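Re: weekly structure request thread

Next one in the queue (491 aa):
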Amino acid sequence: MVRNQKNKRKLEDLAAERAVLSGLCQYGLSVSLDSDYLESEHFTDPTNQIIFGCIKKVLEKSNKVELSSLLSAANQLGCYENINNQEEIGFLRSLFNFPIHEENVSIHAGKLAKLGIAREVKKTLAICSNKIDEVTGDEDINDIISLIETPVLDATSKIYQGSDNKPEIIGEEITDYIEFLKENKNDMIGISTGFPAYDEAIGGGLRRKCVDLVAARPKVGKSMFGDAVAMHVSKNLGIPVLVLDTEMSKEDHLHRMLANLSGVEINTIASGKFDSNQLNTEKVENAANELGEIPFHYVSIAGQPFENILSIMRKWIYQEVGFDENGRTKDCLIVYDYLKLMNSTSISNSMQEFQVLGFQITQLHNFCVKYDVPCLSFVQLNRDGITKESTDVVSGSDRLIWLCTSFSIFKLKSDEEIADDTDENGNRKLVPIVARHGAGLDDGDYINMNMFGKFGKLVEGQTRNELRTKSTIKDTGFESGDQQPADIETV
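Done, posted below.
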């Protein structure tokens, strides 16, 4: 039996293993509850692993551990022969007499857990080393980096966000949760987009673990929509935002945001002509100073494989966002502009474009669930999106709709709609078609949006139904629904 500390190996502590086993044998369930994160793999000695498994089996039905119950558990687990000999029985008896204070058991248990983490990290690094040895020099730099980065970040994410994923009684701690909700009242469940009507339609802003999709035809203003949300979240809420862009340059985004903050036209800024006017110069410089202070992060992902994009997102969370004391990702937002294929290499005779896009939204959704973050993503509308307003107008698979939390269409208003709503009520409309947490909008209703392209601004207006209600009040003096049908017998 390998329990001799004279031949101690690195990243193991047999004395701590014995202390934990003794504590469990002597104090039973009260100690087990404080060290329930331990698994057999945290023990390095094979027999200690077996004994720990037997102790866990006993404590499933009993509050205390006895030698007879240990042997019975070993028989049930099929490992009775491994411990039914004079040496092992003697060791088991010694566990019940080993001097260990109850309050010290958790200290030794924590040590075993940390040593287990270190062994896992070492194993991960060894795997990385073997993969690096296979590099030929023909690979892309990002592919080489991902050989190290992806396994290491995956391993560390298990540490930060580790969960045993055991089934639990859903209402077991409901009283505590109700008290938490009462003590933490808020107006917005998720992160506000800066567009109140849109926030309400999708059920309270952008929620963690969710992907909210906005679909639009080309050149309608998807990127300006994304920038508007990113600016609001980073500037007004102080929450870090990562904008993943597939088409526009960093300079294009800077020009738009400077115009948005300064009120100076985009082309005047981009051409440098703002310098000809002292007032404009001051406005742009003040906007630049303001922009430098907000946690707005940008990266171009044009041409990047989707796996690399996920790696960029993961790295940003670790480097710029971080985790709280409970291992939960701090508040942040990812804006993906927009979900599409980067090249034709993913398409084959057996894999069509819409299927690849479906797998991408699956990976993106799984990423958001794993790292507990919200994502606002954009997709392209097909030609039917010019006239139709339903989920079948998105270019991609049904999976895009299945896995998103909300699906909205952002489009130009028709001449008739502009005439009906009047010019001051916007030139764009936002139609939240489906929402898992909210009611969306139906019956031809939509949110009026006014895009001031020259200044990089997008302003939310009232919904179509709100305008109709106001118009009815103005024309009749009654609110909608207040007008009662006349009784024909009284006329």
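Confidence is low (pLDDT under 50) at residues 342-351, 480-491. Strands lie at 211-216, 241-245, 296-300, 333-337, 375-380, 406-412, 428-435, 447-452, 457-463.
Next request, please.
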